[in-house]
Amino acid sequence: MALVRRVSSAVTLVSVLALAGCGDSGGLGLGDLFATAPEASDEALTPEALFEKAEFQLSSSEPDRAATTFAEVERLYPYSELAKRAIIMQAFAYHQDKDYENSRASAQRYIEFYPADEDAAYAQYLLALSYYDQIDEVGRDQGLTFQALQALRTVIERYPDSEYARSAILKFDLAFDHLAAKEMEIGRYYLKRGHYAAAINRFRVVVEEFQTTTQTAEALHRLVEAYLSLGLDAEAQTAGAILGHNFKSTEWYEDSYRLLTGRGLKPQSIGDNWLSAIYRQVVRGEWL
After folding, report:
1. What is the pLDDT of residues 11-63, one digit of tens each?
2. Which keywords, in A-to-Z order, does the entry hold (predicted)?
3. Could you give the CA distance from residue 70 to residue 251 in angstroms, rounded to a whole number?
4. What domains can be seen in the chain, in order of their start residue?
5. pTM summary value
6. What CA–CA distance (Å, rounded) separates 108 from 162?
7. Are 140 and 153 in contact (CB under 8 A)?
8. Count of CB atoms situated within 10 Å of the CB of 219
9. Positive or negative, the Cα torsion across 96, 99, 100, 103?
10. What region, left, alpha or beta, does residue 100 occupy, with left being phi > 0 and alpha being psi -120 to 50 degrees?
């Protein structure tokens, strides 16, 4: 059974036992037992009882305490089977607490110690999530996005038959699109301020390196705008031709078509430039 299901089942079982104990006026529930037990008693608990205590803390929305208790399982009983499970549960608990650095460290340790274990795929997936879940917090610093992409690719390539591969593929595509969106954001910033060459460099990156993302159509339209502003009609027309070939039904093509025809131009490949090379690839069906 995969770890993610075991986590869910264990937490549910502990919750049920706790509720059952609370409803029985004649005795203490599992929650009462852990709540009243002093912290110093951890060393007196069996590995099973200590592991259950950590699971209860996790189900009680105390992931930070759970991570600490799972660490105690590993420290006090390093050669037990539960010690192995405690490492990856630490990674899970730290992730729940948004302590991504420690989650990543625990997941990496599990992979190093047990690379052939059935839960190694989940450990790698948690490691990737420790980067991925911070993407929206990094502003223009895309280092974590690149690290997320690399870690997600590892899940996909190393564990293609695991239940985490499909989710990793979806998140990889979203992270890839995020990088393209950041290039677009910077490109639009330059375009609005009349720094056309700098803007073109950013939009070119999207067209050449992120052509499978949702940002490509707008990037081509912005190239039309920038090149027309510089008086480079051939490049603008070629960008419009690529846009029309691949995204004819979009508002971006309609806007580009209006800009071009307003100057007596039309979308077509002209000249010998980087966009013309892409257009030839488009016609041969080698791009997009």
Report:
1. 433 433 333 344 444 444 444 544 544 454 778 888 899 999 999 999 999 99
2. Cell outer membrane, Lipoprotein, Membrane, Palmitate, Signal
3. 54
4. 1-117 (1.25.40.10)
5. 0.73
6. 18
7. no
8. 25
9. negative
10. alpha
